[in-house]
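[Discussion] Sanity-checking designs against the backbone

I'm trying to build intuition for which residues belong where. Below is a C-alpha cell string of 303 positions. I'd appreciate it if someone posts a full sequence so I can compare it with mine line by line.
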C-alpha cells in the first residue's frame, strides 16, 4: 500500500528530509507543512506524520493517522498537544545523535571549567594571562536527566576524568559505573549542592517548565556553570541574568530558547558570560529519521 507521509513543523523547514524519504519510501506520497510551504492535501489520507513541533490540533484532524514520528530524541513538542490522537508516538534513538550530544557537552563543560571564554577575550587584547587550572577529577559535573542521552553523556564525561553525578525524577537501573545517582524531589538539593557544572537534559513537562530558576541556582555552589541542552522553556531568563550578575553563576552555555531564532536584540547575544549556540547540540541525520520511520511503520504492519 502506498503510504501518505506528512513532514510537519511550525518552527523549522522540513524540506531537508525530502531526499532521504524519497530514497527510503520511493512509492510514498510525501506532503509538507512547515514554515515555508503548506501542501498537506486531504488530511484524511495521511498515514504517518514526521514532525518537529506540529501545530496543536492538526494531528487530531487526521482520522487515518497510524504513526507520529519525532525527528529528534524528544517527544515533548508532540505531547504538548492536548488533542493528540491515540496513536503510537516514536522518538529517534541513534548512535550518531548520541555521539553528537556527547561531543557538544564535553566542549561545553571544558569551555566553562577551563575558562575558555576568558581566553578568547584575552586573545582579542593580546593578553598572555593564565587562569587557574583545576584537574577534571576535582570538577563535579551534574546531569539533570538520565535518559539515553544523559547516560551516554555521563559515560563520556567520566571518561575524560570528570566526577559525574546524575539526577532523575525516578530511579534508573543499569547506570554507568562510577556515576553517583540521585532521584526524586527529596534528593534534588543534595544533587545540586555537588554540581560545579549543571547540565540540563530534562524532558519538558509541566513539572520541569521553568525549573532553571533563581531557587535552583541558589542551591548550586557559588560560581557554578550552567549548560542547557534541553528545552528553552526550562530556563527562567531573567533569573539567569540575575544569577550571572550576582556571581552565583559564573557562565552559561545555552542551546535552546523559548523563541527560536533568538531575536537579534535579546540580551543573551552580547552577555560576556553567556555562550549562545543555535540549537545545534546534536542533529539527527535525515537518513536516520527516514530509516527509523520505515522500521516503525513496518512494526505497525506486523501488529
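Best answer:
Here's mine. Compare freely.
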Amino acid at each position: 500500500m502506498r503510504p501518505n507521509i506528512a513532514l510537519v513543523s511550525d518552527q523549522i523547514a522540513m524540506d531537508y528530509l525530502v531526499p532521504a524519504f524519497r530514497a527510503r519510501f520511493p512509492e510514498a506520497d510525501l506532503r509538507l507543512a512547515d514554515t515555508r510551504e503548506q501542501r498537506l492535501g486531504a488530511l484524511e489520507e495521511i498515514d504517518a506524520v514526521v514532525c518537529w513541533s506540529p501545530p496543536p490540533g492538526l494531528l487530531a484532524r487526521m482520522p487515518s493517522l497510524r504513526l507520529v514520528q519525532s525527528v529528534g530524541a524528544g517527544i515533548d513538542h508532540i505531547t504538548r498537544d492536548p488533542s493528540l490522537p491515540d496513536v503510537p508516538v516514536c522518538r529517534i534513538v541513534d548512535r550518531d545523535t548520541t555521539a553528537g550530544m556527547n561531543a557538544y557537552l564535553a566542549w561545553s563543560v571544558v569551555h566553562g571549567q577551563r575558562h575558555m571564554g576568558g581566553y578568547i577575550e584575552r586573545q582579542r587584547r593580546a593578553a598572555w594571562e593564565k587562569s587557574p587550572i583545576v584537574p577534571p577529577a576535582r570538577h563535579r559535573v551534574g546531569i539533570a536527566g538520565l535518559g539515553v542521552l544523559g547516560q551516554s553523556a555521563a559515560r563520556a564525561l567520566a571518561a575524560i576524568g570528570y566526577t559525574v553525578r546524575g539526577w532523575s525524577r525516578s530511579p534508573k537501573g543499569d547506570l554507568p559505573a562510577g556515576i553517583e545517582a540521585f532521584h526524586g524531589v527529596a534528593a534534588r538539593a543534595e544533587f545540586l549542592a555537588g554540581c560545579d557544572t549543571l547540565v540540563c537534559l530534562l524532558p519538558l513537562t509541566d513539572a520541569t517548565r521553568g525549573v532553571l530558576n533563581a531557587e535552583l541556582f541558589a542551591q548550586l555552589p557559588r560560581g557554578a556553570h550552567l549548560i542547557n541542552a534541553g528545552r528553552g522553556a526550562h530556563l527562567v531568563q531573567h533569573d539567569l541574568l540575575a544569577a550571572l550578575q550576582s556571581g552565583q553563576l559564573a557562565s552559561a552555555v545555552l542551546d535552546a530558547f523559548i523563541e527560536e531564532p533568538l531575536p537579534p536584540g535579546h540580551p543573551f547575544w552580547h552577555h560576556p558570560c553567556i555562550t549562545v549556540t543555535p540549537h545545534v547540540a546534536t542533529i539527527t541525520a535525515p537518513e536516520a529519521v527516514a530509516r527509523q520511520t520505515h522500521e516503525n511503520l513496518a512494526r505497525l504492519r506486523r501488529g
